[in-house]
Structure formats: C-alpha cells, structure tokens
Amino acid sequence: MTIDDNRLIAENGNELAFDFKIGEVMRAGQIWVVRLDVPPDCRMTENIFGVTAEGQHLWTIEGTEANSTDPTNTYTALSRLEGDVIHAFNWNGTDNVIDVRTGKILETRVTK
Hints:
This protein is 4% helix and 49% strand. By secondary structure, the protein is mainly beta. The longest helix is centred in the middle third of the chain and has 5 residues. The radius of gyration is 13 Å and the shape is globular.
C-alpha cells in the first residue's frame, strides 16, 4: 500500500480516496486498517476503516452514541494487538478494542 495524502493506493493500482488526509495505516492479517487525520474544526468520529489488500473498502468503524455527539471522540492513534484486534484511541482518553474483520467495537476502556 502507498499513501498519497487522502488516497490509499493498492499494489494492483486500485485507489481508495477518503474525505481527509490519511494519518496512519496498519496491517492486521489480510486487512489494512486506515485512520484519517481529522482537523479539529471538522466532525468525523468514525475515522477508521478496514481495507483489503486490493484497495476495497470493507468497513467503517462502528459508531457509538458517545462518538456521535462529541467531536473530541475522533480517533487519534492505533495500536496492534495479537490476532484480529487493534486498539483505537481518541482525544477523550478512550481505548476501543476493535475487531479488524468487522470494525465492531469489542471493548471500551477509559485510559485517563
């Protein structure tokens, strides 16, 4: 995968464009997890996506009631775990454990 601002380019040449600049890409098994850098003056709290190696969008992170009402819940970092899960951290100190196959939130922890 290659990153060009807001575009993700797969090895086969397929491109996937997002609304904001790509901040981070992490491979988890056969799925690439993409986190967008959302400017502070914009609202997009579901800014993590699952993508195939061929550049096809699989999922957008599951929304939550808290995320939909507070722009500080934009995800700011990812961390890889063993197996098919990653951690997704946001501005308000929440760590969500995400299933990389589905984008579903498996567990939520407060880190602050």
